[in-house]
Amino acid sequence: MKTPFLRSPYAGLLLLALVLALMPFLVRNDFHYDLLTKICLTATVAVGLNLLVGYAGQVSLGHAAFYAGGAYASAILTSQYQITPLPAMLIAAAGVGVIAWLVGRPILHLKGHYLSMATLGLGVIAAIVLNNEDQLTGGPDGIGLPPLSLLGHELSVFGEYPFAGLTLTGVELWYLLAAAVLLLAVLLALNIIDSPLGRALRALHGSEIAAQVAGVDTARFKLRVFVISAVYASVAGSLYGHYSGFITPGIASFEHSIELITIVVLGGMASTFGVIIGAVILVLIPQFLTDFQELEMVVFGAILMAVMIFLPRGLLPTLLSRFQRGAR
Amino acid sequence: MLSEFFQFTFSGVTLGAIYALVALGFTLIYNASHVINFAQGEFLMIGGMGTVVLLEAGAPLPLAMLGALLLAGVAGVVLYKLAIAPAKKANVVTLIIITIGASIFLRGLAQFFWGKQYHALPRFSATESISVGGATLLTQSLWVLGIAVVLVVALALFFNRSRLGKAILATSMNKDAARLAGIKTQTILTLAFGISALLGAVAGVIVAPITFTAYDVGIMLGLKGFVAAAIGGLGSSTGAIVGGLLLGLSEAYTAGYISSDYKDAVPFVIILAILFFLPNGLFGSRAVERV
Amino acid sequence: MSALLSVNALSKEFGGVHAIEDLSFEVARGDVHAIIGPNGAGKTTLFNLVTGLYQPSAGGVRLNGQDITGRQPHKLCEMGMARTFQNLQICMNMSAVENVMLGRHRHLGSGALSAMLRLPGQRRADRACRQQCRELMEFVGCGAYLEHAASAMPYGALKRLEIARALAAEPDILLLDEPAAGLNATETGALRDVIQRIAEKGITVVLVEHDMKLVMSVSDRLLVISYGRKLAEGTPSEIREHPEVIAAYLGGGANNKQEVPA
Amino acid sequence: MKRIVKHFSSAALLCLCAFTGAAQAADTIRIGSFLSVTGPAAFLGDPELKTLELYIEQLNDNGGLLGKKVELVHYDDAGDASKARTFVTRLLRQDKVDLIIGGSTTGATMAAVPVIEQAKIPFISLAGAETISTPVKKWVFKMPQSDRQAARRVLTDMKERGFSKIGLISGTGGFGASGRNVTLEEANKMGIDVVADETYNPKDTDVTAQLTRIRNTDGVQAVLNFDFGQGPAIVTKNYKQLGIELPFYQSHGVASDSFLKLAGDSAEGLRLPATALLVANTIADSDPQHDVVTHYKKAYEERYQGSVSTFGGYAYDGLQLAVRAVKKAGSTDPAKVRDALESIQGYVGVTGTYNLSAQDHMGLSYDSFRILEVKDGHWALAQ
């Protein structure tokens, strides 16, 4: 018999922390750090989106809009209004949250495919606005961002930082930051899931009627989780913007929204650790597929279909249940 | 100014007819299987590109078209057999991802075998355009409209008159009951995917002379078709047609009268407004949820 | 005010078909009030109207003297109304005890911040809630499934789980929609005990049920409806003798498999 | 849970190890490249990659560079700027390339620039917007003329023909939007009024509404369509279908035979600024570019059975400049190669004659553009 702690999701968090802490001993060069940083930031968005899609059962095909919203707000606030990155990021997150609240109110009473369609529409509109308002956003060619600064210390990907007798490169520090953000994101998500709020959200998915008669104001809770997941995306977007130093409206595109929802579904809906694996796969897969050159799309499409057909509940949940069945 | 209005209308109706055909394809599959098939746009691509490739291989135009339609039909059936049917237990979002995977797969194949070039198909009539009320009307637009109308009528007859059509309808209403009534639902679903693919391919062939065709035309047209189907109310054929026309016209009028910058955004705003008041689209069923 | 729930001239149409037509009745506080009638009589529709899932076409509903017509279900829950469903409404993506804990929603703070930060106050409340819910599950007789996934539970246990969830809200009035459907004789016997003990706690129970033995043994009053209209109302013994009830149940067509109330 | 995490970490380990191959051989020169070979900008990336592959092969057949074999390491960014950035990181940090030729689109180039500037590796961009080379970035060079030069070339031709009020229609993609901005600015400087200014989505299938608006604007004397891809072909067709008789201009973005094939007879009579490559068959023998364009055209078309485009020409020039610079530097030392690039004068390429300097990392003047006209379905120098 395992102890209760080992069976709780928080044990998973500890192990995730362990894995993240071990990564620096495995990587061989800065490119690996780059991928890891991307994985952590993408996984952060996915963990938030999973609250909405996996736990509360509300599909969003336009989530890239919030990610782009955070990134662009940070870009504009830092470059045109001379606000330092950290407050800019917070203002961006608040702004994106407010926008999500405003647009969420009318669209979240839609169900199923109509909700998909409406969120898709929002994403498309956001991408068009970013593309067209070039005075503000730099238009289709994109916009640059300054390096992140924390408490007056600039964190450039390219800098070197002496720290307690060690010299850490900017790339390494960025990875540590992204990993910390992911851990925090997972911790908050786990807390939410195992709370009255989390039960109400899961009930939206399990049985909206049960939730209603149990006293859950379903409209309000849908809106809440929509805003929470939008803020997750915004923060990750802002960080990605500062990390990469340059963003284009491509990050708000329909394709990017699809990529995000694919991460959630592929990794496993309603499985916080599953979607992290989903993010790992979707970030790494293009790197592996470069050898296929012209056949890259064919292989990617085939993998996507195969995984979803044979593991319809997503990688982690399906493998987990098979494993448990095998153990019995 | 009237001629201007005519011009925008012609352009909107042509676009709308294309969207409507794609939306009908969505509707057909949605009705039979409750799957939103994001690979629908790829059938258009197969229709257009298939014709181009066969034409280049030396086939006469009608034969090339026929071949391309056949190819698309086969692709539809294979899609169902290999990707949708095995995923019976999958939930809605998973099915969406599967069809997206299929769409990427098909696009990848087309790119690999048929290349990335854009191609033009010859128009069907010798004359390019005629003047109506001071506005230019393309003869190919008339072909698009004519064929769209014929297809819609044919589909309506098929569903209301033929045994097969009725069987598809019955399956869409209640799969278990249909099975009990002796309908082979597997066959019916396969058929629905095949017909839907054919429909898409026809649209792909008839618009190619106006819009060009390439391995990636399916993305945008597929998306617009989905939008049109959703405005009309998923599962309603009338809705698909009205939704398609509404989308096409609103794009053309926005580009013409408001701002071409926001041509693609304004229709979405209209759609969001429609969905706000009619959460099941214009013609969607407003059945009360059974508890 | 002795009536806790009063339904006044309630009507509901679905596309021209009257599911409920001009129906009035009252449920006294502390009673077990059964609603019976042939299949399709409109019993579930009536429940859905009373609990706010459907909007009535005409007429009104009062709870504790307050007009609650068309009020949203979650508001009614806050006013002390809870219910179960004929076709189970269980969250299959949650564990058994979590389903019951969902029922205590109105008694728990559900702030996003306190949830994210896992504040001590909220954790304490949640621990207490889990304990209460465990007791409730034992009370209704599905305590053995505490941490099981709801999707892995047998039907009978799920029916009880739903009652536990409804009770978790600490309602004044509990509406049970065919709680005995699909249960065997032993389970039905246990269910009767549960209903009686709920009534003993002072909770008013409204019961839609086909099992006449159960109905007759637990109800204080009965309402008989047919085709959306009131057919008869009274105590079990009055109903048993009511000529129209007997006629309706005997001549009600092939799909009436109910026992004649005798 | 423990085992899952074990699985997870071992999978991650596996993933990382798979990337660690790429040992660098000392006897090869590695040229990195990231191009949009698929995706919406494939018509840029595709000929660019083909050109690089063709000429690097040729280079190796002729004994390589500095006696070393040249190796091309290429990744397809599919027109996605964030993918481009990741691949550039991979080129720099893992593949450890000696220099980079790539960036089909401005977005991809600009996303790569910060990483490249930091890594201090010479980068030759094949994308067009002015922002790439203005202000000058130490390690970044660019091959195509800027869109501003194209706009100025077109507007000059318009002015010479006496037009002072024009209509503009552009795509909302990167190329079109940037082209629109510089056209508006240059027109303002040259005293030309842009009286109608319309846009369309690059994926649009019909632009008659926008063209109708232009047609109905008072005083329009000529119309310019600034965009690349298949959009301009649709604009050209619609233009003809609407029976608009005004002189019509396209940008250098459609300077290829495939545009003529798509637009068909609708293209007859339109003008655009283009490089000598498009008129290789008719160019005068005395023209300094005669040899280079005819050779490139022949080599490319023989190998790939398709017609050359201006974009492949950028890749050709980029590679030739890189080769010259490496030869001049006598090594692949990045700083030396960079300095050598910056000092190249009078290189006659497919695109034009390059004179690079510390102030100018692009090196072409605006008259490297020639105004061409479509005559009988072929490109010809405009009279």
Description:
The complex is a heterotetramer of chains A (328), B (291), C (262) and D (383). With 328 residues, chain A is mainly α. Chain A has 15 helices and 6 strands. Chain A is 73% helix and 5% strand. In chain A, the strands form 3 sheets. A two-stranded antiparallel sheet of chain A has the order 1-6. In chain A, helix 5 (85-107) packs antiparallel against helix 11 and helix 12 (254-267) packs across helix 13. Chain A is globular and about 55 Å long. The two termini of chain A are 13 Å apart. In chain A, 64% of the residues are buried. Chain B has one domain. Chain B contains 11 helices and 2 strands; from the N terminus they run H-H-H-H-E-E-H-H-H-H-H-H-H. Chain B has a two-stranded antiparallel sheet. Chain B is globular, with a radius of gyration of 19 Å. The model of chain B has no long low-confidence stretch (mean pLDDT 87). In chain C, strand 7, helix 7 and strand 8 form a beta-alpha-beta unit. In chain C, 47% of the residues are buried. Chain C folds into 2 domains: 1-80 and 173-185 and 203-262, 3-Layer(aba) Sandwich (Rossmann fold); 87-170, no CATH class. By secondary structure, chain C is α/β, with parallel strands linked by helices. The radius of gyration of chain C is 19 Å and the shape is globular. The longest helix of chain C is centred in the middle third of the chain and has 21 residues, at 120-140. With 383 residues, chain D is of the alpha/beta class. Chain D contains 12 helices and 14 strands. Chain D has helices spanning 2-18, 42-61, 81-94, 106-119, 147-160, 174-190, 208-215, 231-241, 257-263, 290-304, 310-329, 334-342, and strands at residues 28-35, 69-76, 99-102, 123-125, 140-142, 165-171, 193-200, 222-226, 248-250, 271-274, 347-348, 353-354, 370-375, 378-381. In chain D, strands 2-1-3-4-5 form a 5-stranded parallel β-sheet, sandwiched between helices. In chain D, strands 7-6-8-9 form a 4-stranded parallel β-sheet. Chains in contact: A-B, A-C, A-D, B-C, B-D.
What's the order of the H and E elements of chain C?
Answer: EEEHEEHEHHHHEHEHEEHH
Subunit organisation of the chains = heterotetramer
Radius of gyration of chain C: 19 Å
What is the gyration radius of chain A calculated from CA atoms?
20 Å
Number of domains of chain C: 2
* CATH architecture designation of the largest domain in chain C: 3-Layer(aba) Sandwich
Name the strands of the widest sheet of chain A in spatial order: 1-6
The CATH topology of the largest domain in chain C corresponds to Rossmann fold
> For the record, what CATH class of the largest domain in chain C applies?
Alpha Beta
Specify which chain pair forms the largest interface: A-D, 55 and 48 residues
Q: Calculate the terminal CA-CA distance of chain A, rounded to whole Å.
A: 13 Å
* Gap from first CA to last CA of chain C: 33 Å
CATH topology group of chain A: ABC transporter involved in vitamin B12 uptake, BtuC
- Overall pLDDT confidence of chain C: 88
By helix and strand content of chain C, what is the structural category?
alpha/beta
Counting DSSP H or I runs of 4 or more residues, the number of helices of chain C is 10
Q: Give me the count of strands of chain C.
A: 10
Instruction: Provide the low-confidence segments of chain C as ranges.
Output: 252-262
Mean pLDDT of chain A, rounded to whole units?
90
CATH class value of chain A:
Mainly Alpha
Q: Structurally, how many domains make up the residues of chain A?
A: 1
